[in-house]
Write a structure and sequence with these properties.
Elements (H helix, E strand, L loop, with lengths): L13 H13 L8 E2 L16 E4 L2 E7 L4 E6 L5 E6 L5 E6 L17 E7 L4 E6 L4 E4 L12 E6 L5 E5 L3 E6 L5 E7 L4 E7 L4 E6 L3 E6 L5 E6 L5 E7 L2 E6 L3 E6 L2 H35 L4 H11 L4
Antiparallel strand pairs: 1-20, 2-3, 3-4, 4-5, 6-7, 7-8, 8-9, 10-11, 11-12, 12-13, 14-15, 15-16, 16-17, 18-19, 19-20
Length: 314
């Protein structure tokens, strides 16, 4: 066991000391042109649109989710609590308004009548709620969407109306609207995924979380295109700004990553070549195994004994 006289090391394990030193060293990097804030950053949204805010019949409402597993619909102007929704067994981790029921860019003069909100919790469930000023109810309460092994941290709709999810089980999934929100794509980030985003122009999916890096995936093939490294604590949120991705983290930094073709074009081509090499290697390995099987035959003695048995009755 090692020992130290440094007061900062008292009551710490060797592992915790090494981890502190690792973070201190990594914190000096300038990757992503970091903006440093004085405290942990738990979430980020793109101003001015708030994904949990809607206009129902000329009344602005906000939907909030809490650690006590409740979802509350508020009137912004009056601060009145309109509805309290219960359904999750554990805390609410994210909310997302279904764009097919609420289009931020095409709101009628008198607002919309109702909207559908998706909720995700640490009970691994995704539930749906139909909300209006007069009432709120759960959609199909006996059949929540259950496609993750544990907590679902984030919900994001893409431009096709499909729902992307991020989970502590180490995966991000695309739930297809046209398949009644069944998963048609699974991305293996391999550590807690706290955030997911979609870059529509290039066809990329971005994931981030406890691994401290931002991973860019090809949406069609699911191949890993590029990994951006810079944060030195868990990443808590991602925001798309055209063809750039903003990441925020527990390390108190805001970082910007360029997803333009000139940045990712070579990475995508390298990923394609790597995939082709792996396929070729697998094919060669398969052929070798087949050849080995073909060459596994009988010894001369075994062939002679078999011939004798076949001719015993003659």
């Amino acid at each position: 066991m090692s020992s130290s006289t440094d007061p900062d090391h008292f009551f710490q394990t060797n592992h915790s000391i090494a981890e502190t030193e690792r973070k201190s060293s990594k914190s000096k990097n300038q990757n992503g042109k970091p903006v440093r804030l004085p405290s942990k950053i738990l979430a980020a949204i793109a101003d001015p649109q708030c994904p949990q805010q809607a206009v129902l019949k000329n009344a602005e409402v906000i939907v909030s989710g809490a650690a006590d597993a409740s979802i509350i619909v508020w009137n912004v102007q009056t601060a009145e609590r309109l509805h309290v929704l219960k359904g999750h067994a554990r805390g609410i981790l994210d909310l997302a308004v279904d764009p097919s029921t609420y289009d931020h860019d095409n709101i009628p003069a008198d607002g919309i009548q109702e909207a559908v909100v998706f909720s995700a919790g640490s009970d691994r469930e995704i539930r749906r709620w139909r909300i209006s000023l007069e009432k709120a109810e759960q959609v199909d309460p006996e059949s929540p969407l259950l496609f993750h092994e544990t907590s679902v941290y984030a919900l994001r709709f893409d431009d096709d109306g499909d729902l992307w999810t991020a989970s502590a089980d180490g995966t991000a999934k695309c739930l297809s609207r046209f398949q009644n929100f069944q998963p048609d794509t699974t991305i293996q980030h391999n550590d807690y995924v706290r955030a997911v985003a979609v870059e529509e122009v290039g066809g990329y999916v971005i994931t981030a979380g406890r691994s401290e890096d931002v991973k860019v995936w090809d949406r069609g093939s699911g191949e890993l295109i590029k990994t951006f490294d810079g944060h030195y604590e868990e990443i808590s949120g991602l925001v798309m700004l055209q063809q750039r991705c903003v990441s925020v983290g527990i390390d108190g930094t805001v970082r910007l990553w360029d997803l333009l073709p000139e940045t990712l074009g070579n990475a995508r081509e390298q990923s394609k070549r790597r995939s082709e090499r792996l396929e070729t290697r697998d094919e060669v390995s398969s052929v070798r195994q087949e050849d080995e099987c073909e060459h596994v035959g009988l010894t001369e003695e075994e062939e002679r004994e078999l011939d004798e048995l076949m001719h015993e009755d003659n």
